[in-house]
Amino acid sequence: MFSTPLGSAALWGYLFALPAVLAGFNSGASNNIAVYWGQNSINKAVGGQQRLATYCANTPVNIIPLAFLNGIKNPTLVNFANAGDNCTTFAGTQLLSCPKIEEDIQTCQSLGKTILLSIGGATYTEGGFSSASEAQTWADTLWAMFGPKQSSSTALRPFGAASVDGFDMDFEATTSNMAPFAARLRSRMDAVSGRKFYLSAAPQCPFPDAAQKEMLEQVAFDFVSVQFYNNYCGATAYPGNFNFDTWDNWARNSAPNKNVKVLLGLPGSPTAAGSGYVSGDQLKQVIQYSRGFPSFGGVMAWDMSQVYGNAGWLDSVVSALGGSLPPVTTTSKNTTPTTTLVTVTRTSAATSTPTGSLVPQWGQCGGIGYTGPTQCQAPYTCQYVSDWWSQCA
Fold it and tell me: Where is the CBM1 domain (predicted)?
């Protein structure tokens, strides 16, 4: 995955409607959809990243990792691209204070979405920790900064009163003592009664992942979003070198948590990554094949701005995870034949009556579940983008 410099942009986005069954990560489901938010990697002045809450109302995306906390020992490196334009700094520091993201996290959580903080990214350069004790100390620090607010803590909190639902590990170069770091966060999260927190990772598809091998061998993750792109084993290699079966074998036989889910990580557009983008029949075939494995938990995509700038792609993902698909039977070197049927019921398209309010450029004017204004300000017209979104353009 990648991070981008901070920048300003005029933004727009899409809203989606799908049943509440997709609200929040579901460890027993195979139709989770995770999309990273925060980097505006499409880097467009128009059609780029909107506020986080935009992607939480009426959306099939149920997991949103915030990308990225680029530094652990230097947590001033909280980088959310153009969203950082709405942040200030704490007095006397360079650490961002982001009240709009605080508000949006709480809004998303009220809608049942799982919001994680992704740590690392392609620009992480600290290399980990000199010892296990140092790793645990920094885990405690991040827990105080981003976990539930502690009355006795004086830690500066970039998201104020909001706390994330867990952490995502996205390290793409070799690090030291990351297992004690992740294990400490795991223990902190598990010690909270009455609320479930999640730990995820985003390894590359070559197995074992060089950067995160230690953590994956020693720490119990709830799910891993394997990056099946930019590598020989990615989705474009299906059926040849595509190795979802290897990750399924790890999940069921070697992972500390034998119920860990494996998400199929994909680029959200042709330009979202260096290589590995799939669409159309190829996308459908890769998802159908992968969901035949017991550990399959859904799809991950990089990143939000690319996904919502690529009309119809997310529709295809939802369709491939939907109930209209036939049962899938797969046979591989690591599994016996299995049959899986995933059921997702779509809502019917709602009609809306034109009102006196006119929708501005890039605003929503139609889509499944939409009941607002349908007439656009001149000279714009309502243009279909996906089943869930039509916009004034």
Answer: 357-393
Per the annotation, the verdict on 172 as an active-site residue is: yes
- The Cβ of residue 232 has, within 10 Å, a number of other Cβ atoms equal to 13
How many distinct helices (H) and strands (E) make up the chain?
8, 15
**Torsion over CA: 199, 204, 259, 66 (sign):** positive
C-alpha distances (whole Å) from 374 to each of 24, 315, 371 are 30, 21, 8
User: Is the CB of residue 276 less than 8 Å from the CB of residue 235?
Assistant: yes
Give the DSSP per-residue string, 320-342.
HTSTTSPPEEEEETTEEEEEE--
pTM, to two decimals:
0.80
CA torsion angle 156 160 308 354 (round to 10): -160
Separation of alpha carbons 182 and 125, rounded Å: 17
Supply the pLDDT for residue 368.
66
**pLDDT value, residue 386:** 59
Which residue type occupies 392? C
* Contact criterion met (CB below 8 Å) for 149 and 163: yes
Q: Which residues pair with 34 in a beta bridge?
A: 63, 300
139 SS3 class: helix
Contacts of 191 (CB under 8 A, 6+ apart): none
Q: Are 39 and 68 in contact (CB under 8 A)?
A: yes
Name residue, tokens 């294990």. Answer: 183
Dist CA 384 CA 212 (whole Å) = 42
Q: Which position among 102, 103, 134, 172 bears the catalytic label?
A: 172
pLDDT tens-digit series, residues 81-98: 999 889 999 999 989 999
